[in-house]
Amino acid sequence: MMHTVRKLPHIDGDLGWVETTPNSNLSFGPHLKGDHEFDIVIIGAGYTGISTAIRLAEINPDTRIAIIDALRVGEGASGRNAGFLIDLPTTQVQQHAQNDHSVRQKSVR
């Protein structure tokens, strides 16, 4: 039994990476309707889904792979990631968190 999707995820802000990409309106493949058969179906067109599909296609080029996502590629969580990094060693971050917790405990007393 086929279910009809009535409500898609809500885009809750500007999608900077998608909107600034010159080819953001290009489709990565046909939108399929009807019955189809695939060897592998991947849910999600984020980093993991796309990289998994690419690797599977490299390993076995004859594999029929479908990637399904509710949104366009780059509109989900992966595409919204701004890529911020913290350049402190983990021990410094942990020490800072412990000190912050100690200060909060002392101020509560």
Outline of this structure?
37% of the residues lie in helices and 7% in strands. It is mainly alpha-helical.
Defining traits:
4 helices; two-stranded parallel ribbon; about 35% helix; mainly alpha; about 110 residues
Protein architecture, described:
- The chain is mainly alpha-helical.
- The chain is built from four helices and two strands; from the N terminus they run H-E-H-E-H-H.
- The protein has a two-stranded parallel sheet with strand order 1-2.
- The longest helix has 19 residues, at 90-108.
- The chain is extended.
- 4% of the residues are buried.
- The mean pLDDT is 76.
- Looking across the biggest beta sheet, what order are the strands in? 1-2
Put simply, the count of helices is: 4
Rg on CA atoms, Å: 21 Å
- How many β-strand runs? 2
- Average pLDDT, to the nearest integer? 76
Order of helices and strands: HEHEHH
Basic shape? extended
| Termini gap | 61 Å
Structural class: mainly alpha
Quote the beta fraction.
Answer: 5-15%
- The helicity comes to 25-40%
Low-confidence stretches: none
Taking the sheet with the most strands, its summary is:
2 strands, parallel
Helix and strand layout, with pairings?
Blueprint: H1 16-19, E1 40-43, H2 47-59, E2 65-68, H3 77-80, H4 90-108
Parallel strand pairs: 1-2
